[in-house]
Write a structure and sequence with these properties.
The protein has 403 residues and is of the alpha/beta class. Helix content is 39%, strand content 12%. Bound molecules: pyridoxal-5'-phosphate (PLP).
Length: 403
């Protein structure tokens, strides 16, 4: 059964049959609330598109602009947004490989790539692997972009070569939805300094209905920027790799500098699945976003009742909760050993390592998300109410247990 089951209603025995990273990386008694996979069944139109493609033997290489056209139509219908011009797009194997290829075009070895921690760990890992210099401009205490500090970092990056800003819009792990004005200020500062913006918009479909989402390429002054988009997170398709890079009006020539071969890594079945999701999986997405909102509220209630000293400032997008354990005395010691794991989401360090051992719950390690993550961990609440409730009960029991 697909689609007809309400989202987040799978039981743990069904989920444990899954063979993906989320369900196989931890011991079998552990509740996995870490990597960004959702505990849902797929949208029926996606399954049908894949089955039909397999039936007709349509398992060759990806081709054409249908995925880009489907995203442009989705953006128009959902947010009333232009900004996504299929004539200025390229399919890329996935969002992060798209980011890597764009950074190769826009910057050179040793140039700065600005990131805003806490942020998705591969932003560090891939930029560093590429020989770029990662420059951190942490979010403010309210988890917003620090605009004056970004402008400074852009000026200083441009003073030493060609700089780029990897923007996460909406933001992983905090769920922050950047406002139009914030993004326009980013665009203005980047333009003034000659820094190029690459916006990772993979979480855009998962913005709550009450919040206003702004695609980066729709803001004033963003014409030299890029957006990387994908149906991967919104429809839970990370195993069906595909993504699209869109260039702003002044960035088309740079997009054309991506080697044609980059497109060879796109999974044709991935592109078909993502296209079907964007065109025909919108009711499914709405049901999932509603379910996530219920889970967001449940998590807030559970934390207030059982772990009141854990701080959480919920964002209006994604299914990720950035939890701050700094008020718990043991967190200081747990965080002390954590520095080495910046950018490496596979390392269990700090609070997450402690919780794995003592609560048998797997969260993502805060230090992997960069500076300021020492006492934090990221919890994925795209699961059933039962799993979420049990996970918080286990954490509360471990935290409250005598040591
Ligand atoms: C912000 C962000 N970018 C990129 C990715 C990975 O996307 P892809 O598999 O398309 O590289 C994720 C996955 O969780 C993510 O959260």
């Amino acid at each position: 059964m697909v689609t007809d089951t309400p989202p987040f209603d799978l039981d743990i025995a069904q989920l444990r049959q899954r063979t993906s990273a989320k369900w196989r990386a931890a011991d079998p008694d552990v509740l996995p609330l870490w990597v960004a996979e959702m505990d849902v069944l797929p949208a029926r139109p996606v399954v049908e598109a894949l089955c039909k493609a397999l039936d007709r033997g349509d398992t060759g290489y990806a081709f054409g602009a249908e995925y880009a056209e489907a995203y442009a139509a989705f953006a128009r219908d959902r947010w009333g947004s232009g900004g996504f011009e299929p004539a200025r797009s390229a399919m890329v194997p996935d969002v992060m490989l798209g980011a890597v290829e764009l950074l190769k075009v826009l910057t050179g070895p040793g140039d700065a790539v600005v990131v805003t921690p806490p942020v998705y760990p591969p932003f560090y890992a891939f930029a560093e692997h590429l020989g770029r210099r990662v420059v951190e401009v942490p979010l403010t205490a309210e988890l917003r972009l620090d605009l004056p500090a970004l402008a400074d970092a852009f000026r200083s990056a441009a003073g030493r070569g060609r700089g780029a800003f990897l923007l996460c819009n909406p933001h992983n792990p905090t769920g922050t939805v950047h406002s139009y004005d914030e993004l326009a200020a980013v665009a203005a500062a980047a333009e003034a300094a000659g820094v190029r913006v690459v916006a990772d918009e993979i979480h855009a479909p998962l913005v709550l209905p009450g919040a206003t989402y702004t695609p980066y390429l729709t803001v004033r002054g963003a014409g030299s920027g890029f957006a990387l988009v994908s149906a991967s997170k919104g429809w839970n398709l990370p195993g069906l790799k595909a993504a699209v890079a869109f260039a702003g009006p002044e960035a088309g020539a740079d997009l054309a500098r991506l080697p044609e071969e980059v497109g060879h890594g796109v999974s044709h079945l991935g592109a078909l699945a993502h296209t079907a999701a964007l065109r025909h999986g919108r009711e499914w997405l709405d049901a999932v976003v509603e379910g996530l909102d219920r889970n967001r509220a449940l998590l807030g209630d559970l934390l207030a009742a059982h772990l009141p000293s854990v701080r959480w400032n919920p964002g209006a997008a994604t299914y990720l909760a950035w939890l701050d354990f700094a008020d718990l005395p043991w967190a200081a010691t747990a965080g002390a050993d954590a520095d080495a794991s910046r950018g490496d989401a596979s390392v269990r360090a700090g609070v997450a390592a402690w919780l794995y051992e003592h609560a048998r719950v797997l969260l993502s390690s805060g230090p992997a998300f960069g500076s300021g993550g020492e006492h934090c961990a990221r919890l994925n609440f795209a699961t059933s109410a039962t799993v979420l409730t049990e996970a918080i009960a286990r954490m509360a029991a471990a935290v409250g247990a005598p040591r």
